[in-house]
């Protein structure tokens, strides 16, 4: 496990991305992250809180880009952290960079995710 894992947020990999993210019955927020990423560390507690508070409406997971290049390349992720929401197996929302919890929740609500 990487040093930026958010508490209560599962780590997914190239191997289980399809099952854990693409086949879910609720929207999935994926953070594309890396151990060397400072903003990812800033975002970890925000994601932990959102995962806990919105567990009935949103699944939150992390994917380490260095250990999972297939998924990273497949979705064109170039910067960390990249946050992407998947619904029904398709990416429906994306943003790059760390942000405060209030801003992130507002963006997710505006996108119809929350």
UniProtKB/TrEMBL annotation:
Residues 1-113 form the Thioredoxin domain. It holds the Pfam family Thioredoxin. Gene3D superfamilies: Glutaredoxin. Keywords: Disulfide bond, Electron transport, Redox-active center, Transport. It comes from the Bacteria. SUPFAM superfamilies: Thioredoxin-like. Belongs to the thioredoxin family. PANTHER family: GEO12009P1 (PTHR45663). This is Thioredoxin. The gene is trxA.
């Amino acid at each position: 496990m990487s040093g930026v894992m958010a508490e209560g947020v599962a780590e997914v990999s190239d191997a289980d991305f399809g099952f854990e993210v693409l086949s879910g019955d609720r929207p999935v927020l994926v953070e594309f992250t890396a151990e060397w990423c400072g903003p990812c560390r800033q975002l970890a507690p925000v994601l932990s809180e959102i995962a806990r508070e919105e567990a009935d409406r949103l699944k939150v997971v992390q994917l380490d880009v260095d250990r999972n290049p297939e998924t990273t390349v497949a979705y064109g992720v170039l910067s960390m952290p990249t946050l992407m929401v998947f619904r029904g197996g398709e990416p429906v929302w994306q943003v790059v960079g760390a942000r405060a919890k209030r801003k992130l929740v507002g963006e997710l609500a505006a996108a119809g995710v929350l």
